[in-house]
Amino acid sequence: MWEIEVLDALQNIHTPWLDKIMVAITSLGNAGILWIVMAAVLLIIPRTRKVGICMAIALVLDLLMTNCLLKNLVARTRPYDVANFTDLIVKKPKDYSFPSGHTAASFAAVTALFMSRKKLLGAISCVIAILIAFSRMYLYVHFPTDIIGGIVVGVAAGVAAGFILRAIDKKLAAKAAGTDIENH
């Protein structure tokens, strides 16, 4: 299986210091915590509140699509079980493999930032998202197609969040315009 070959090849670049870095990077994506905290901070600041709302919507959509629907529907076994890989340096995830939840949440957040026209923050976050996604393969807990699936789901959630927020803004603007006309 080509995916196991890719994961096995990644084992050749392991070093003690890189292991520590990859464990730290992957932990940023545990339960989407980095992205949840970022969304919360953006929600607190009045001028970035809409960005925070977009990220929050994207993360909720991602959670529903990834953890509530796709993981259980696909029910893909983790690569360490398929390949009988015993050298894990992180705790074994208990859920299914497809799609990567870490990757999906990361790319949902990044896409929400881009949909909100926060290009610099989006670009910085994209680098972090790519590193998180790579760490999942480096650590042998996801297949490459789990990562690709996570990217697709995350981008879809982020785009959907952007469109939902724009639709809400239009509706509120139309309602405000209608209210102003009625009051004159």
Features:
single chain, 184 residues, mainly alpha, 8 helices, 0% strand, elongated
Summary, kept brief:
The chain is mainly alpha-helical and about 180 residues long. It is built from eight helices and no strands.
Write up this protein.
It is a single chain. With 184 residues, the protein is an all-alpha fold. The chain has helices at residues 2-10, 16-28, 33-44, 49-74, 79-82, 101-115, 119-138, 144-183. It is elongated and about 65 Å long.
Please outline the helices and strands.
Elements: H1 2-10, H2 16-28, H3 33-44, H4 49-74, H5 79-82, H6 101-115, H7 119-138, H8 144-183
Order of helices and strands: HHHHHHHH
Largest sheet: none
The Rg value, from CA coordinates, equals 19 Å
Mean pLDDT: 94
What structural class should be given to the helix and strand makeup? mainly alpha
Give the beta-strand count.
0
Summed up, the helix count is 8
- Which word captures the global form? elongated
Helical content band: over 70%
Distance between the termini: 70 Å
Query: Are there runs of 5+ residues with pLDDT below 50, and where?
Result: none
Strand content: under 5%
